[in-house]
Design a protein that fits this description.
single chain; about 290 residues; mainly alpha; 9 helices; globular
């Protein structure tokens, strides 16, 4: 009997102690849990809203999100007009999951040097010209020469490099005329319209028409060149290096991979930022 009473007394004391501890921290814990739930619900809501936007809209608002799309093999430049939900369905990816990754990237402060969507038309045109056009002019010919070199040396054992050289020649030719149209027609028209509007004047009709005429053909060029570059990537098996190749082969594949990365950013900045801004300006000014 005495033992039973002692056990009951000990249990009662333990229960009282646990209750006291729980009572002392439950309010704080509950507040923290509610805060966590709110943050989780907010992230989920943002992720769901993001899934309704196109890939191009998301990357145009914050270029850092391009890394998320690259991770999943989602095209954000030439295929930027596709809604995220559709792209996820095609890739078999959970939209909510990728949406949370995007929100995590966007939660970090963004510097103006990466906030391309906030740049003015003239500044953006000059940036593309001095960065991406300059890169292409400096490297396109060298890559073509290397591609033909490895086709000649390694074509017997790796016939894919012969096709790569031919396809790249087409890209180089198409790109040359593409750059000329932008540099001689589109960019000057954009800069004249931008300057005219800032001066409070009406842009000239010829410049407005030049923009409308150029945009459709330039976007078609982007699609054609992008598809050709994807074919090269497929032939090169993602630029994986065979064991029996020389240094020039390695350099060529590395340069092709770099070329692809630069072109993705270049096309994104035009298709998803510069071109829509120019189209809007020409529309409201016409």
């Amino acid at each position: 009997m005495t033992m039973t009473i002692l056990l009951r007394s000990s249990l009662t004391v333990l229960l009282l102690a646990v209750t006291a501890v729980w009572s002392g921290c439950s309010a704080e814990d509950t507040t923290q849990m509610k805060k966590t739930d709110r943050e989780s619900a907010l992230r989920t809501a943002k992720a769901e809203d993001t899934s309704m936007k196109t890939i191009g809209e998301i990357v145009a608002a914050d270029y850092r999100t391009s890394k998320v799309f690259a991770k999943y093999g989602i095209d954000f430049c030439c295929g930027g007009k596709v809604p995220l939900s559709v792209a996820c369905r095609e890739k078999g990816i959970d939209p909510a999951s990728i949406g949370r990754e995007i929100e995590a990237v966007r939660s970090e402060p963004i510097g103006r040097s990466q906030d391309y969507a906030s740049w003015g038309l003239s500044f953006l045109s000059d940036y593309i010209l001095n960065t991406h056009h300059a890169y292409l002019k400096e490297n396109t010919g060298q890559i073509a020469a290397y591609a033909h070199k490895i086709a000649e040396v390694h074509g017997a054992r790796h016939p894919e490099v012969i096709r790569i050289a031919v396809i790249y020649d087409t890209i180089a030719t198409d790109m040359a005329s593409h750059l000329r149209q932008e540099e001689e027609v589109l960019f000057p028209a954009i800069k004249r319209i931008d300057a005219t509007r800032k001066a409070g004047k009406t842009p000239e009709t010829k410049d407005l028409n030049a923009i409308k005429t150029c945009l459709a053909s330039l976007q078609q060029d982007h699609t054609k060149i992008g598809e050709a570059l994807q074919t090269i990537r497929n032939l090169a098996k993602g630029y994986a290096m065979p064991d029996d190749v020389c240094n020039t082969y390695v350099i060529t594949y590395n340069m092709l991979k770099e070329f692809e990365g630069d072109l993705h950013k270049h096309v994104h900045m035009e298709n998803n930022i510069l071109f829509p801004k120019a189209a809007w300006v020409s529309e409201v000014s016409g």
